[in-house]
Design a protein that fits this description.
Blueprint (H helix, E strand, L loop, with lengths): L1 E4 L21 E2 L9 E2 L7 E3 L22 E9 L7 E2 L1 H11 L6 E5 L14 H4 L3 E2 L1 H13 L4 E4 L11 H5 L11 H9 L2 H7 L1 H8 L3 E4 L11 E8 L7 E10 L1
Helix pairs in contact: 1-3, 3-7
Length: 255
């Protein structure tokens, strides 16, 4: 039996996913502070997102209601999609991956692009987010429908994003000079002005998966160490009452 840790390390010095205004900076209190603790966002590092994150699906299951068997030792099919920096994963890509892999009914579905194999967590800058492969809207709709019909309600991937938020967040936030951090006043002001119509365009891909009841896990690392096409996965988010998303640890088990 072989265990492969697919979890991005949480590093209080630098996280490659904290460049967006929606991010929460991972903070570890100094050792001599009387209230030593940490601040971690629900999307920090490897993270799980439920459909309930969107207002339209708010009445669906929450983190404290997810059955353990949905996340622990869940059988999973491993698909591989070859792509490059900031390349769109197309409808034909996901159709081929799904058909070639042939997940069994009820499997989790893991898509490996090798993006998570790069040493992003050791490098500063925003390339991890901005250069990540991402799903086109048509690819997301096609894959979400196929997963739903086959009862594959858990999708895992080593990409930083599912859809690239390039309608508003990327062109607007990253054009600001000088650049600002996620915890800045500028970020708070940007989000104050960021309305639901903008969000629907930026997160249309994510909403397609949510619409079909698919729980998603992003930002996996070292997936190329998985050699088998069929594995089991351990996904361990925080057990947050009424929670809709959480940083999590993910381990692949090869038998």
């Amino acid at each position: 039996m072989n265990f492969v840790d697919l979890t991005m390390p949480l590093n209080h010095r630098w996280m490659p996913d904290q460049g967006l205004p929606t991010a929460i900076k991972f903070f570890l209190g100094p050792k001599d502070h009387e209230e030593k603790g940490m601040v971690v966002g629900s999307d920090s590092g490897t993270s799980l997102t439920l459909p309930a994150i969107f207002a339209e699906f708010r009445k669906t299951i929450r983190l404290d209601q997810v059955p353990v068997e949905k996340l622990f030792l869940r059988p999973a099919a491993v698909a591989r999609i070859s792509t490059g920096n900031r390349k769109e994963i197309s409808k034909s890509d996901v159709e081929k991956a799904f058909n070639d892999t042939g997940p069994a009914k009820g499997d989790a579905f893991l898509i490996v692009t090798r993006w998570g194999d790069k040493a992003h967590h050791q490098e500063e800058g925003n390339d991890y987010i901005l250069e990540s492969p991402y799903f086109s809207f048509d690819a997301a709709r096609t894959l979400a429908q196929a997963l739903h019909e086959n009862e594959n309600d858990l999708l895992l991937t080593d990409t930083a994003v599912l859809g690239l938020p390039n309608s508003h967040i990327i062109p607007e936030w990253f054009s600001m000079l000088p650049s600002s951090s996620a915890e800045s006043a500028e970020a708070r002001m940007y989000l104050h002005l960021y309305n639901s119509e903008k969000a629907k365009k930026d997160f249309a891909v994510e909403m397609e998966f949510a619409r079909q009841g698919i729980t998603t896990v992003r930002k996996l690392v070292q997936c190329s160490q998985i050699k088998s096409q069929r594995i089991k996965v351990l996904v361990s988010p925080l057990n947050i009452v009424r929670g809709v998303a959480s940083t999590c640890r993910v381990v692949a088990v090869e038998e």
